[in-house]
Design a protein that fits this description.
binds D-malate; globular; 18% strand; 8 strands; alpha/beta; 8-stranded mixed beta sheet; 44% helix
Length: 266
């Protein structure tokens, strides 16, 4: 897997395909492998680049001290520089990856060709959610990463996935268990400090695809529909038999929607 050194930190990513760049940005507390089916199924539609964010996956050595969503966004801009990519990219982010997409748009809009917002939200955390993240950050440091598995699992999957595709659940658990405790704690606090991006939505003037799992209870379809309605040039899609992790839970339907949208983008 390729590595790039950016300001003395090592970042890992995978890439597949050629043509217009598409950045695939993972959710919390995952890594680039959550996009395996997209890397396999959509590589004829562009240059797909799936990084491990700072502290996650094989980028685990990069410092997470004072981590912020802005820092993730800046890291990705530096990654594009290091790959000599100056043309605007499609930025596709899931959940925490979507929070980073908004920050990337805020700071690097000239580098954005289109946005794909999967199972995410534009608002910031309510005070009780912020407090819960602080509690969870302390708990994960005390009890280890299993605390995150226990807390998140009930809100991640469609009932169909839990009943019929236990392999998807095991794959998610393995990814979570691979996340360093310090990274998980730092990212929880970073998400709790993120800015509210709802005021950005009406001014997003790039094609935007908003995707949600029909059974997502973390970023429910009703809220995602409202998010899509606030973005002028947007398309909204609900993926059946999927909860919060649409690209993993129903990759065939997810790839069809994203593939069609990328084809139309040209
Ligand atoms: C994610 O999937 O990235 C998380 O659900 C994001 C969050 O905790 O807000």
């Amino acid at each position: 897997m390729p590595t790039l050194s950016i300001a003395d930190e090592r970042f890992h990513y995978v890439e597949k395909g050629q043509g217009h760049p598409v950045l695939l940005v993972h959710g919390f507390p995952l890594d680039h492998t959550m996009w395996d089916e997209q890397l396999d199924g959509l590589a004829d539609l562009g240059r797909l680049i799936a990084p491990d964010l700072r502290g996650f996956g094989l980028s685990r050595e990069a410092s997470t001290e004072g981590l912020s969503i802005e820092q993730f966004a800046d890291d990705l801009a530096h990654l594009l520089d290091a790959l000599w990519i100056s043309e605007p990219v499609v930025f596709c982010g899931l959940s925490m990856g979507g929070y980073i997409a908004f920050e990337f748009w805020r700071k690097h809009a000239d580098r954005v060709r289109g946005l794909v917002l999967c199972d995410t939200r534009a608002d910031d955390d309510a005070p009780e959610t912020k407090a819960a993240r602080q509690t969870m950050a302390a708990r994960v440091r005390e009890q280890g990463i299993e605390a995150i598995v226990e807390a998140m699992q009930p809100r991640m999957f469609s009932p169909c996935t839990s009943a019929d595709r236990p392999g998807d659940v095991e794959r998610w658990k393995a990814m979570v268990r691979g996340c360093p405790v310090d990274t998980a704690a730092a990212a929880l606090l970073a998400m709790g400090r993120r800015r509210n991006s709802t005021e950005l939505l009406p001014a997003i003037d790039r094609p935007t695809l908003v995707v949600v799992g029909a059974d997502d209870v973390t970023s429910p379809p009703g809220e995602m529909r409202a998010l899509a309605a606030a973005v002028p040039n947007s398309q909204f899609a609900v993926i059946p038999d999927a909860g919060h992790l649409t690209p993993i839970e129903n990759p065939a339907a997810f790839n069809r929607v994203l593939g069609d949208w990328l084809n139309r983008l040209g």
